[in-house]
C-alpha cells in the first residue's frame, strides 16, 4: 500500500530552486574544493621533496623519493580518507549529518596547516611527520564525502537533485585547478626571488634553501577555503529527512524547514510514528531484507566507484611522469628545483582548465536530462576507447610532431571521467538508500572508491616504470611501462561499464519513492526487478 508522503518532505521535493540551494552547494562544495586541493597538490611537490631531502652528491640525476617513501607520501592521505569515509558515514547516520559536519572541517583545517609545518631533524623525520598529518587530513576529508552528498541530496528538490549533488562534487575540479594555480604563483615568485642554476650546471646550488618553504606554503593553503565556511556549516539546520525519518522529531523537522523554505509547515507526528513502526522501515544494514532490496545496488555503487578510482587516481598521480615521457616537462637535470615545480604545476593547471573542470560542469548541466545511468555508461565507454587509443599506438604519440595530440587524447579521458562516472558514482549512493542508512552506504561506496585509488596510486607508481632498467626512476624495479599501464586501465574501465548495469536510475524521483520509505511496495519491487532502467519507471 502506498502511503502519503510527509508534507515537509513533499515541500522540499517540490520547492523551486532558491537561494538556500545555492548556499548549501557553496557550503558543502568548499569542503570538496579543499578535499581535491589537498589530495592532488601532493603530486606537485613530490619531486621537490626528493630534491630537498634525498639529494646525493655527484649523482647524475636530482634526488628523488625512494619507492616506499613516494608510495607513503602519495597514498597515506588516501588510506586516511578510506577510514574516514567508513567512520564518519556511520556516525552521520547515528548522530546526525550536521553534528559530524563541523568536526570533519576542523580536522581538515588543522591537518592542512600541520602538514606544512612538518618538522624533523632528518629527512626521515620530516617525511614521517608529513605522513602522520596527511593521514589525519585524509580522515577528515573522508568524512566530507558521505556527509556533503547526503546533506545536499536531502535538501534538494527532486527535479534538480542530481545537478545540485553533482555541483558540490564539481568543486573538486576547482580544487585541482586551485592547486595548480597556487603552485604556479608560489613557484614563480620563489624562482624569481631566488635565482638558481640548473642541476646539470651546479647540482648543490640548484636547490636553494628557500625551496623548503615552497612545498609547505602549497600544502598549507588548502586550509583557507575550508576555514572560511566553518561558520556557515554550523548555522545549517539538520536535514528534515534525518530529523523526521531517523530521529523521529516531526515538530523539529517542520520548524527547521519552515525557516529554510519561508513557509508554514505542519508537524505530522502521527505519520512519523506510522513510518517509524512500519516493519519495512526498520531493517538494518546486515539484514536479509537489506540484501534483498539494496544488495545489488550496493554492489553496483561500490564496484563502479572502485574501478573508476583505480583509473582516475593513477592518471592524476602519475600524470607528471606522462608529461615527462612526452617531453612537456624537460629532463629534471635541465631545471632547478623550484622551476620544476612550476613546470609540473603548469601542466596540471592546463589539464584541469581544458578537461577536468569542463567535464564536471557538463555533468551538472545534463545529469537531470540524460540521467545518471546514461552518463556513467557513456563516460566509462569513452574512457575505455581513449585509453586504448593512447596505448596501442603509444610510440606514435611519443614522437615530437604528435605530442600535442597525445595531450588532447589524455585530456579527453579526464573529460569523460568527470562528464561520466567520477561524478555519477558520487551522486547515486546519496539517493537510492534509506535515510537511516544513506550516509553509511555512501561511505561504504566511497571507501571502495578509495581502495581503488590506493591500488592506482601504489600499483601504478611501479607499473608505469620503463621496462628498460636504465630508464627507471631511482630505486624502482623495471615496470611494464606507460603503454601497458594504459592498456590495463582501459580494461578496468570496460569492467566499469559492465558493473554500471547494476546501478538503478534515480532521475526525477523522490528519495522516499526510491527507497520505499513511504511504504510503497510496488515501487520497491519495480526498482528491484529492473535496476538498470534508464528512465523513471
Automatic annotation (TrEMBL):
Database matches in InterPro entries: MFS_dom (IPR020846), MFS_sugar_transport-like (IPR005828), MFS_trans_sf (IPR036259), Phos_permease (IPR004738)
Pfam families, alphabetized:
Sugar_tr (PF00083)
What are the alphabetically sorted keywords of the record? Answer: Membrane, Phosphate transport, Symport, Transmembrane, Transmembrane helix, Transport
| Gene Ontology BP annotations | phosphate ion transport
List residues of the Major facilitator superfamily (MFS) profile domain.
24-508
Subcellular location(s) of the protein: Membrane
Its transmembrane ranges are 20-49, 69-88, 100-119, 163-190, 213-232, 296-314, 344-366, 373-392, 404-428, 440-464, 484-503
Q: Recall the GO molecular function terms of this protein's record.
A: phosphate transmembrane transporter activity; symporter activity
- Gene Ontology CC: one annotated term: membrane
PROSITE patterns xref list: MFS
SUPFAM superfamilies, sorted: MFS general substrate transporter (SSF103473)
User: For the region Disordered, what residue ranges are annotated?
Assistant: 512-537
- For bias type Acidic residues, the affected ranges are 514-523
**Membrane topology, as annotated:** Multi-pass membrane protein
Q: Which family does it belong to?
A: Belongs to the major facilitator superfamily. Phosphate:H(+) symporter (TC 2.A.1.9) family.
Protein's name according to its UniProt entry: Major facilitator superfamily (MFS) profile domain-containing protein
Organism for this UniProt entry:
Gossypium harknessii
Amino acid at each position: 500500500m502506498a502511503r502519503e508522503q510527509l508534507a515537509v518532505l513533499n515541500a522540499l521535493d517540490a520547492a523551486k530552486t532558491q537561494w538556500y540551494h545555492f548556499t548549501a552547494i557553496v557550503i558543502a562544495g568548499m569542503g570538496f574544493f579543499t578535499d581535491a586541493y589537498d589530495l592532488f597538490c601532493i603530486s606537485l611537490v613530490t619531486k621537490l621533496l626528493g630534491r630537498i631531502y634525498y639529494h646525493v652528491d655527484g649523482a647524475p640525476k636530482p634526488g628523488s623519493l625512494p619507492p616506499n617513501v613516494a608510495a607513503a607520501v602519495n597514498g597515506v592521505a588516501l588510506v586516511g580518507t578510506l577510514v574516514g569515509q567508513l567512520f564518519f558515514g556511520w556516525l552521520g547516520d547515528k548522530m546526525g549529518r550536521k553534528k559530524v559536519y563541523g568536526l570533519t572541517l576542523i580536522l581538515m583545517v588543522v591537518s592542512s596547516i600541520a602538514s606544512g609545518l612538518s618538522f624533523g631533524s632528518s629527512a626521515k623525520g620530516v617525511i614521517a611527520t608529513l605522513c602522520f598529518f596527511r593521514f589525519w587530513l585524509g580522515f577528515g576529508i573522508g568524512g566530507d564525502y558521505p556527509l556533503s552528498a547526503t546533506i545536499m541530496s536531502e535538501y534538494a528538490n527532486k527535479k534538480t537533485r542530481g545537478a545540485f549533488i553533482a555541483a558540490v562534487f564539481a568543486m573538486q575540479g576547482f580544487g585541482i585547478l586551485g592547486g595548480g594555480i597556487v603552485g604556479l604563483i608560489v613557484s614563480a615568485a620563489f624562482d624569481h626571488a631566488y635565482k638558481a642554476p640548473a642541476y646539470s650546471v651546479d647540482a648543490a646550488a640548484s636547490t636553494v634553501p628557500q625551496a623548503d618553504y615552497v612545498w609547505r606554503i602549497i600544502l598549507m593553503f588548502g586550509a583557507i577555503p575550508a576555514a572560511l565556511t566553518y561558520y556557515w556549516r554550523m548555522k545549517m539546520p539538520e536535514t528534515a529527512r534525518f530529523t523526521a525519518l531517523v530521529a523521529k522529531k516531526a515538530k523539529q523537522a517542520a520548524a527547521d524547514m519552515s525557516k529554510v523554505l519561508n513557509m508554514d509547515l505542519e508537524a505530522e507526528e502521527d505519520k512519523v510514528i506510522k513510518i517509524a513502526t512500519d516493519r519495512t522501515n526498520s531493517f538494518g544494514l546486515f539484514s536479509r531484507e537489506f540484501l534483498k532490496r539494496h544488495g545489488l545496488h550496493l554492489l553496483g555503487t561500490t564496484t563502479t566507484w572502485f574501478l573508476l578510482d583505480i583509473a582516475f587516481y593513477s592518471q592524476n598521480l602519475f600524470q607528471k611522469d606522462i608529461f615527462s615521457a612526452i617531453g612537456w616537462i624537460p629532463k629534471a637535470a635541465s631545471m632547478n628545483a623550484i622551476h620544476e615545480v612550476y613546470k609540473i604545476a603548469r601542466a596540471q593547471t592546463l589539464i584541469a582548465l581544458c578537461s577536468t573542470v569542463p567535464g564536471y560542469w557538463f555533468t551538472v548541466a545534463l545529469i537531470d536530462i540524460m540521467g545518471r545511468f546514461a552518463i556513467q555508461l557513456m563516460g566509462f565507454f569513452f574512457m575505455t576507447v581513449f585509453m586504448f587509443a593512447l596505448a596501442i599506438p603509444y610510440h606514435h604519440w611519443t614522437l615530437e610532431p604528435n605530442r600535442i595530440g597525445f595531450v588532447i587524447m589524455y585530456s579527453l579521458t579526464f573529460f569523460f571521467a568527470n562528464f561520466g562516472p567520477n561524478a555519477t558514482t558520487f551522486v547515486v549512493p546519496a539517493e537510492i538508500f534509506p535515510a537511516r542508512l544513506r550516509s553509511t552506504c555512501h561511505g561504504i561506496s566511497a571507501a571502495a572508491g578509495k581502495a581503488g585509488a590506493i591500488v592506482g596510486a601504489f600499483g601504478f607508481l611501479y607499473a608505469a616504470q620503463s621496462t628498460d632498467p636504465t630508464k627507471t626512476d631511482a630505486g624502482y624495479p623495471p615496470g611494464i611501462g606507460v603503454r601497458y599501464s594504459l592498456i590495463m586501465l582501459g580494461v578496468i574501465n570496460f569492467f566499469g561499464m559492465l558493473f554500471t548495469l547494476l546501478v538503478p536510475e534515480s532521475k526525477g524521483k523522490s528519495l522516499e519513492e526510491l527507497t520505499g520509505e513511504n511504504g510503497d511496495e510496488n515501487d520497491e519491487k519495480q526498482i528491484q526487478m529492473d535496476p538498470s532502467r534508464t528512465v523513471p519507471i
